[in-house]
Write a structure and sequence with these properties.
Rossmann fold, 44% helix, binds NADP nicotinamide-adenine-dinucleotide phosphate
Amino acid sequence: MVSRRAVVTGASTGIGEATVRALRASGWDVVGVARREERLAALAAETGASAIACDLTDQDAVDALVAELDRSGPVHALVQVAGGARGTDSVADGSAADWQWMFDANVLSAQRLVAGLLPLLRRAAEEDGHADAVFVTSTAAQVAYPGGAGYNAAKAAESMLVKVLRQELNGEPIRVVEIAPGMVHTEEFTLNRLRGDSVAAESVYAGVEEPLLAEDVADVIVYALSAPRRVNLDLVTMRPVAQSAQHLLARGPLRPRGLGD
Ligand SMILES: NC(=O)c1ccc[n+]([C@@H]2O[C@H](COP(=O)([O-])OP(=O)(O)OC[C@H]3O[C@@H](n4cnc5c(N)ncnc54)[C@H](OP(=O)(O)O)[C@@H]3O)[C@@H](O)[C@H]2O)c1
């Protein structure tokens, strides 16, 4: 049997990198996509994935990516992980450049990929019975918080794109899945958001017992892709146990209450 092939964006680090590893371990052919070529090459050498460097905010680069994917084989699954946050400014103090980057990286990149890859997904679905599109949004798409506005708005817009796409594909054997993680401790996400301030970035996770790991999100992505093809996980919201809600984050050890000391 020919392996199914997934395109995983954001593959150079964090959740995307973990997803490449997890899908390869599950027998998928994988094409990892991100801007940093050297990191992709190292991951490809280690896992047997392929890699294509691409800036998803550049339409010409996405057109070239789609052409290369079309030339090199079928695309049974798009896993759109690339994205991120810039800044924690208030609405009043927000930087238009940060907001534009967040909209471009999280929303327009997803739209560009869908526009480019849907014909390939349809062809794979025709030949193989079904195809999949998975998007990693965020709990920031669901709950507003002070300092979150640009990211809240971008992730909410990406989430709406996913919901619309699922309806537009009704009647086709193509699943459209949204995974919305809460706090995930990845190497770069908060560091980039806080403009490289490593002390401030680490303090975000300080004392939190077991934030989610990139591998936890990757596991859900693998499940979403390997579940029986009649099963569409519309929206999976996942948080660490220590984060009962966006604003309710326990710092310190998790312990049962009421048992005496
Ligand atoms: N970490 C969290 O707490 C958390 C929680 C909820 C949701 N999320 C979402 O989950 C996704 C991944 O999070 P993460 O923590 O793994 O983030 P991350 O470690 O910052 O990784 C972001 C990835 O996106 C890629 N990327 C960024 N801009 C790109 C562009 N213009 N073109 C191509 N690739 C680009 C980066 O690769 P290059 O720099 O090499 O291009 C990198 O591989 C993001 O969409 C994020 O919003 C994260």
